[in-house]
Amino acid sequence: MNMLLVSNGTLAESLIESMHNFFSKPDIRSICFQYGNTGAARTELKQYFSERLTTKDKSFIILCDMFGNTAFNETILLLHELGIQKQALIICGMNLPMVFKLYGLKDYSNIELCRSIYEQSEDRGIILCNPAEFLEQVHGEMDCG
């Protein structure tokens, strides 16, 4: 699986910097949305997905700092735009132990296993988001016909 960290501010980048203390070259990316760079960050995100879609593994585990913020919204909209929302899982509420755990599993598991680890974690501030289901629900609520 491809693993990506997205955040408002530099949290995603900081978590990857921490990983460098344990892994020489972790195969993980971060994209940070900051005031004034949303367009550039969205372009970087689109390039990331486009590059990964040319590889063998086309599934994505995306860790996000917060549900509903700019990083989350731009990511889910781009997944939809590229038609890959069924190939991704977004987990909101990322933290360093979560990054380490999922990084250790990413090459040996699938989206469903990652989902099962955090299914009962909402009371601890962790929200799972299936982009396909989320977009279907939002679209249904906006349908006035």
From TrEMBL:
* Annotated protein name in UniProt: Phosphotransferase system, mannose/fructose-specific component IIA
Keywords assigned by UniProt, alphabetized = Transferase
**Top-level taxon:** Bacteria
Which GO molecular function annotation, any one, does this entry have?
Answer: transferase activity
Database matches in InterPro entries: PTS_EIIA_man-typ, PTS_EIIA_man-typ_sf
> What are the PTS EIIA type-4 domain coordinates in residue numbering?
1-126
**Gene3D superfamilies the record matches:** Phosphotransferase system, mannose-type IIA component
Task: Write one Pfam family the protein is assigned to.
Answer: EIIA-man
Membrane found in the keyword field:
no
Keyword NAD in record: no
Per the record, its GO cellular-component terms are: membrane
Q: Which GO terms describe its biological process?
A: phosphoenolpyruvate-dependent sugar phosphotransferase system
